[in-house]
Design brief:
Elements lengths: L3 E4 L1 H11 L4 E4 L6 H12 L6 E4 L3 H13 L4 E5 L1 H6 L1 H9 L5 E6 L13 H4 L7 E4 L3 H15 L8 E6 L8 E4 L3 H8 L26 H30 L8 E4 L6 E5 L3 H14 L5 E5 L1 E3 L3 H7 L5 E6 L10 H6 L6 E6 L9 H13 L6 E3 L5
Parallel strand pairs: 2-3, 2-4, 4-5, 5-7, 6-7, 10-11, 10-13, 13-14, 14-15
Antiparallel strand pairs: 1-8, 6-12, 9-11
């Protein structure tokens, strides 16, 4: 019998960390992430999870504690959001550069000023060049499943990079949905035990960590991280396929997922919970005899450019929806990354900043605009007050 719980996205993230039997949790509260580390505190306190739970004084300390723990060979987990993720910025580079397979849940939330606790994806997008793998969940079930997969991906010897699993603040973190919770033994059999092949801060075999990288060597370390990102494309697919076989849930190929694109000449591209709204609109229009498609980006870093190109062959119009903005360029990050290698007319739509509602009417407005009015590479802000 399946174990199904009706839980929030933050609870799903905590359940996933428990199932993966993490050794160390570094915790600092920030809305809307806080309930995730609170739930993990409950698991540790009541004996459901045997882990070291470290209460720190800031998000900078949280990620630093994870780096230290990971350097000993421990399986580590933390969670954050928005300004907290921004405070981690310095150490995010250190974690990736030192090749620490940390897994972190980020509850996507707008950055201030003005202060805003609602959802957009500016926080994680602002960290896109730190070397972390970034995965985006559409719903609470996918949140749990991605975090489980993240441990196996991050700890792969051909990857050894930290992973940030992103879910939309409040839209997922505080909304309850039915989530299937797999058996812990089955999950542990899937992720395996983390056994670093390098000597990680062990007295019997000392090893330098975080050494000086002078001009003679620094460039090679950046190249190695890029190679690991490239390797991750294949590893993410392989881990996804093994997960689908073992647990019966699949998400495209683990990198991207397409929806009703076979006959569609117009396709929308985006990430996260917005994909659910778009699917509803596509279904409504399909009932009217109209064909539109969605390409959901799951892996934003590494970005699966070849898979995206292949999935969009024959498409005439592409609308890329961004919940972020590169100020001064007037483009969203997803658009700037994806549009250059697409052959179809491609327009950018800035949506949902600071938690602004994205309604079905807005999706239909975007479809009509990209088909009839949009110029190639045009940017349009949707839902602005007049």
């Amino acid at each position: 019998m399946q174990n199904v719980k009706v839980i929030t996205g933050t609870s799903a993230a905590a359940e996933a960390a428990k199932l993966a039997d993490v050794d160390v949790i570094a915790a600092y509260p920030i809305t809307p992430q806080t309930t995730s580390v609170e739930k993990l505190a409950d698991f540790v306190a009541n004996g459901e999870l045997n882990a070291e739970y470290i209460k720190v004084e800031s998000e900078h300390s949280a990620i630093s504690a994870c780096v230290g723990a990971s350097a000993t060979g421990a399986r580590t987990f933390t969670a954050t959001s928005s300004q907290g993720l921004a405070l981690m910025h310095e150490i995010l580079f250190a974690a990736a550069g030192m090749r620490m397979p940390i897994v972190m849940m980020n509850a996507n939330r707008a950055l201030s000023a003005p202060i805003n606790i609602w959802n957009d994806q500016q926080d994680s997008i602002s960290q896109r060049d730190t070397g972390w793998i970034q995965l985006y969940a559409e719903n609470n079930q996918e949140t749990l499943d991605l975090i489980i997969q993240a441990f196996k991906i991050a700890e792969n010897e051909n990857v050894l990079l930290p992973i940030m699993v992103n879910l939309d603040g409040f839209i997922l973190t505080h909304t309850v949905e039915p989530v299937e919770i797999p058996e812990k033994e089955k999950v542990l059999n899937f992720v395996g035990q983390y056994e670093p092949k390098h000597a990680y801060l062990r007295p019997e075999k000392p090893m330098t960590q975080g050494a000086l990288g002078d001009p003679e060597w620094y460039m090679e370390t950046r190249y190695d991280v890029q190679q690991a990102q490239d390797n991750a494309l294949k590893v993410i697919e392989e881990v996804h396929d093994k997960f689908a076989e073992k647990f019966g849930r699949a998400y495209g190929n683990g990198l991207i997922e397409t929806y009703n694109t076979e006959k569609a000449e117009t396709v929308l591209i985006t990430m996260g919970s917005l994909c659910g709204t778009i699917k509803d609109v596509i279904d409504e229009l399909k009932a009217e005899g109209k064909e539109y498609g969605l390409l959901k980006i799951i892996s934003y870093r590494p970005l699966p450019t070849e898979q995206i190109k292949e999935a969009l062959k024959g498409t005439k119009n592409i609308a890329i929806l961004d919940k972020d903005i590169s100020l001064g360029l007037n483009k969203g990050a997803l658009f700037t990354d994806v549009a250059p290698f697409l052959e179809a007319k491609t327009a950018n739509y800035i949506v949902g900043l600071g938690g602004r509602d994205i309604k079905k009417a807005h999706i239909k407005e975007i479809i009509e605009h990209v088909e009839k009015e949009a110029k190639d590479t045009e940017t349009k802000w949707i839902g602005l007050k007049e």
